[in-house]
Amino acid sequence: MTRPTGIDPMPLSGDQFSQREIVIQFEQAAVRRGDRLIWSHLNLSVSAGEFIAVLGPNGAGKSTLLKVLLGLLPLNEGRLSLLGKPARRGNIAISYLPQRRTFAADMPVRGRDLVHLGIDGNQWGLPLPGLRKLWGGDVRARENRRRVQQVIELVGATAYADRPIGELSGGEQQRLLIAQALVTRPRILLLDEPLDSLDLRNQQGVSALIRQISQDYQVTVLLVAHDVNPILPYLDRVLYLARGQTAIGTPEAVITSETLSYLYDTPIDVLRTRDGRIIVAGHPEEVTYHAHHH
Amino acid sequence: MFISLTVSSSVLLDIPPFSLNLIQNVQNMLSVDFMQSAFLAGTVLAIVAGLVGYFVVLRHLVFAVEALSHVTFTGALLAAVVGQQPIVGLFGVTALVALAMGLLGNRSARSRDVEVGTVLAWVLGLGVLFLSMYTTTSSGAKGSLGVNILFGSILGLQPQQVQWITIVGTLAIAAILAIARPLLFASVDSDVAAVRGIPVRGLNILFLVLVAISVAAAVPAVGVLLNSALIVTPAAIAQRLVSRPFMALLLSAVIALLFTWVGLTIGFYAPVPISFLMSAIAFLSYVLVATFSRKN
């Protein structure tokens, strides 16, 4: 018997995470912007290696959640602990993929350079190959190059890593950006709608890659998504944000007519197709749009 | 002035004409004081322009550079009207405008272009006002200041100007090399760079001030109007030829250096203005590279 090479599509059960290290912990957390409450009463414990989708309508505070984790926005209430410490900017244990932004077609930088900037892009001074031998910098440079090559292989970008990034397709760029995020060997990976501009095949490919990374390297992944379907087979849990409220649990438990109707405060139908896809009927986007005005 | 459009410097100075002995040619040329100054200043300026230019092209700031070099015109004339050294006004006003541009920053490309264009016209208008104030209050002999600022005179540099250019230029080179990596990160991917703890906004402002300094330093030598030949063209060529960022950065400086040295040498032996030569070499090289490089 050979071990299957594919990724196990079954979400891990809650028990398997209970013994693991808690990486992210929110306690009674709330964020306001001006007078507006973005969300409150967020209680969430995330373990190492968990893959969580952050869902909800526009303006529900999904990106805000990532900004809080990155230390770019403070909590107005409650507590957040990341690997046992408060959130702060420039935390090397966290990598972040902003909402995309494709690169200009004439961007004269190779994918490999982009990944390399993930390692040393925040260091001052220019790497001078001749001089750095003097203090052993060439050893580190070789190690860095090896790490860059490693993550490029991991995301399957070897074939096009040496072409200018602007010439690559959206899916290829996204894989290289994931490689850049991984090159620092983060414990937490925050992805803001990474599947947005991709076609269906690339959506599945990138989702499977993210699941594989989170399992093999015990990286905790929070992925903001508009559509849960491409990632549904790979997810452990979903965090649903709507109208300032939050719901957390397995997709089966959270994405139900009952929970969503409660969150949106209006009747919503969740339908499951025979192939396992989820269809949310009741136009949640429009519902929230009106909800703001009443 | 000893520069004439009809006779070359080498003829006027009684230097042997250009021969096949290239080393002898260079020795002859460098035995002349003003050529030494021109080569020293030109070398420093070319390296600064090449390095700064790489990031200018990468960040789509070509128009902003054009605007800043026009600002130098107004700055130099303002200083002349007030009775200061033109070089003080040159650096002061240009750096201030760059600072303002940096603080305004972070707009969309279109609104940035509109703002730069609006400010540019106003600043140039001020320059015209200062020019008229200056020429009506001073003797006719100083009337050539405006032309000198516009087109530069690399063969007519004063020792004090050479000193300024060398010191300021060397500092600018050191600064650019020091911030090169974070600046590249911020130029390519500012969101991720900011999250990684790079002070993106501060770097943007610092970079614009460095652009201002390099533009202002180049004005006495290559003038307001031809600045972009050294800043924009070598960088654009380097980026077409090489896609490794730091290779392209250094190549850009090397190309700028070549333009300057070749321009100075031809200009010394042939009766043609050096500013023209440098801009013509830059133009022709770009056309050649654009035609034959792999890009579609």
UniProtKB/TrEMBL annotation, chain A:
Gene3D superfamilies: P-loop containing nucleotide triphosphate hydrolases
Keyword ATP-binding: yes
Species annotation: Drouetiella hepatica Uher 2000/2452
Domain of life: Bacteria
Residue ranges occupied by any ABC transporter domain in the UniProt entry: 24-268
Keywords: ATP-binding, Nucleotide-binding, Transport
InterPro entries according to UniProt: AAA+_ATPase, ABC_transporter-like_ATP-bd, ABC_transporter-like_CS, Metal_Ion_Import_ABC, P-loop_NTPase
Pfam families per record: ABC_tran (PF00005)
Stated name of the protein: ATP-binding cassette domain-containing protein
Keyword Metal-binding: no
GO molecular function: ATP binding; ATP hydrolysis activity
